[in-house]
Amino acid sequence: METHPPPASLPSLEAHRAWLWLPLALLALAAMALAVDCLVARWISQRGCPIHVAKLIQLSEVFGHGLGVVVLVIVMHQLDAGRRWALPRVLFCSLGAEMAANGVKMLAARTRPRFFDFEEGVLATFTGWLPLGRGGALSQSFPSAHTATAVGFAVALAWLYPRGRWVFATLAILVACQRMQSRSHYLSDVLVGAAIGLIVAWTCLGSGWVARQMDRLESRLKMTGKRSSDPSSGSAVPTERPGTAVETDSRSLRAA
Hints:
Elements: H1 18-33, H2 37-47, H3 51-59, H4 66-79, H5 87-105, E1 108-110, E2 126-129, H6 145-160, H7 165-181, H8 187-205, H9 209-229, H10 244-255
Antiparallel strand pairs: 1-2
Helix pairs in contact: 1-8, 3-7, 4-5, 5-6, 5-8, 6-7, 6-8, 7-8
C-alpha cells in the first residue's frame, strides 16, 4: 500500500485571516441570542428531535469531553507515528479550551435550562457574579466547556489533517447541539464556548508566544523521533533473523 510521509511542518492558522474574525462574530451572535435563549430552550424541552437524530447527537458528546479527547489522542498516537510530534499542540488546543471555559464559569453563575422554569426573563437565568464554583454544576451553564473543547479539538485536527476539516467541524457542531438537546446549555452558552475554543486554538496555532513554545517543543520531538528511527545513530535495537534465537538455544541444549 502506498503511503505518503507527513509534512515536516504545517501552516500557521494566521494564514487564514477569517479565523481572526470568527470569535468576534460568535460573541456578537451570542449577545443577540440572549433574546431567544429561553424560547429555544423551551422549544427543545417540549419538542425534542427524532430518536435517531437524538442518538447521533448524544454519541457525539465524546468529541467534546476531556476524557474522550484523551482517548482519541491515544488512538492517534498509535495509528499515526509520523505526526506524534504534533499531539501536545492538539491537546493544548482542546484541553486548554476546556480549562479556559471552566475559568469563565467562575465569573458568572447561570442556571442550566433543565433547572429553569422559564416563567421569568432571560436575565433571571444569571444568578450572580464571581460565584467561584458556588452553587455546583446546576449554576454553571455559562459558557459551554464541552463546545469549547470540541471546537478547539476540531481546529487542531483540521490543522493536522486538512482533508478532514469538514468532518471535524460537523462533529463540533453536533457537540454544541448535544449540549442544548440535553438541556445543559442555552444557545448563547454554546456560541460563547465556540468563541473560546477558537481563541485558544488561534493562540496555539498562530504566531504568538504560546505558538512559538509549541514550535520549539515540536522541533525537539521531531529530532527525538529521527534519532530513534535512524539505525546509524546507534540507538536502534538490533534485530535477529527469524529462528536465530531458537537455533542458539538448541545448540546450547545439545552441548549440555
